[in-house]
Amino acid sequence: MPPTAMNDGRRKFLTQIVNAAAAWGLGIGAAEASKANAREIVPSKTLVQSRSKPTKTDKTSLVHFETAPFPFHGTIPGTNEPFLNVDENGRKGHRTGFGRLYWEDQTYADNRVLLHIPKGFDIRRPALMMVFFHGHGATLERDVLARQQVPAQISASNANVVLVAPQLAVDARDSSAGKFWQAGAFGRFIGEAGQQLARMFGDRKSLRTFASMPIIVVAYSGGYVAAASAIERGGLKKRVRGVVLLDSLYGDLDKFAHWIEADPSAFFVSVYLSSTRNQNAELEDILAAHDVDVSGQINTRLASGGVAVVPGGSGRHRDLVTHAWVDYPIIDILRRLPEYRR
Fold first, then answer.
1. What is the rounded CA–CA span in Å between residue 201 and residue 260?
2. What pTM was estimated for this model as a whole?
């Protein structure tokens, strides 16, 4: 089948899924993942007690988390200044470094997390938890679910992957990481995610699996601050097996470089458009100075590790989560992890 026809078919397929998502029913038929000829990679081990059969339907929900990034009443990193640095007649807000003012009750009060377990997820097989950090001007329902189609892409990938996507600043031009700025906070969040996923899965014996499965972090645009904080201070050490930045390397280059150097067995992929081209070039220089090889192509077997810095195609920044070097890039990334196939 010609590539254009294939992409058109996939686009129509995912559009049908998203139209049904308003009722939280994302029933997606999984496509057969392509076979790779690379050497065999042994998936990271998880603790399996549950013998439940694969899920018969997609399970998607918005869940309130105590450990969510917001609300946040701490201080701004590197300062003693409170994050909520504006008080007008008892109404608290945050004025960003760019002078924008956002009120806590409108922007920093949503502690919900989007969870998704795809149809066919098999608790008995090697599995991954994907944590997705949205960018500026986003909400979980309108953007992560419907526009960016993140749950739909996971379902269509045929990967044995569950999604955890916290709400950051609501519909705002702000990259603040909230609680994730604090040491160990991301680890506590992942612990709660394991509990909530086990509850949604419907088998209490699945908790040990969700509580131990390896993690990949995917950040789009302004989500880089939360991603950098998670890998630097989250307390999960080598449980994070990969980081993917989708036109997201606007800063914190030292944190990402340190994580890359600390664990060569993990993978790092940074995709750039014009907005982050210079930062990606700078990261390449930093890594070269430390004798870290950087590829201009994404590894066909990501579980083997490695670093890739690649252009994101000719599309717009706003559309990158669905139209990048390929249509639906999250599907492409997950298919490069055949060790975690459903």
1. 33
2. 0.88
